[in-house]
Design goal:
single chain; 166 residues; mainly alpha
Length: 166
């Protein structure tokens, strides 16, 4: 059973990384294309829009990635000074607050996407729903990562209390 869980999360890791890499490549290619075409005197109107959309996707897919990699902005100054049970309690309180925030943002991002469903982008004339779909996807993945991180923290705390290794 443990192997199946690890395989699911490995798939999720690869999915997050792949999506971020694809949009980073799109972003860099479009910025390069935009610079070259401006220098040549015929700027393309759609490259700026594609770059902006790619940046939005990278940002919101990056949220769950930073939670998983434990590199998100937190109270590291405070957490670093705490030990034992106090550290565990503080970290779990932070996870609960993060979970509440991500749940709130997930709800409102779904509402926002339904509101924006009929809107089209100016240059590409595509539905902006394709762009803003990254919001609920990113927040839902962040919730999954927060649950995963909380389970990991509980296991570490239980091993520390019992005197065993992880």
């Amino acid at each position: 059973m443990e192997m199946i869980k690890k395989n699911k999360f490995n798939l999720l890791n690869k999915l997050e990384e792949s999506i971020a890499k694809v949009f980073m490549l799109i972003l860099l290619t479009n910025i390069f294309l935009q610079v070259v075409t401006r220098l040549l005197g015929f700027p393309l109107s759609f490259t700026e829009e594609i770059s902006r959309f790619s940046y939005i996707w990278i940002t919101f897919i990056g949220i769950p990635y930073t939670i998983h990699a434990d590199i998100n902005i937190r109270f590291t100054l405070v957490i670093g000074r705490l030990t034992g049970k106090f550290r565990y309690v503080f970290e779990m309180l932070l996870r609960i607050l993060e979970f509440a925030l991500m749940s709130f943002l997930l709800y409102w991002s779904i509402r926002y996407c339904s509101f924006m469903a009929g809107v089209r982008s100016p240059a590409l004339e595509i539905s902006v729903l394709w762009v803003y779909a990254c919001l609920p996807i990113g927040f839902a993945l962040a919730i999954v990562r927060l649950v995963q991180s909380s389970i990991k923290n509980i296991r570490i705390f239980k091993c520390d209390r019992s005197g065993g290794g992880v």
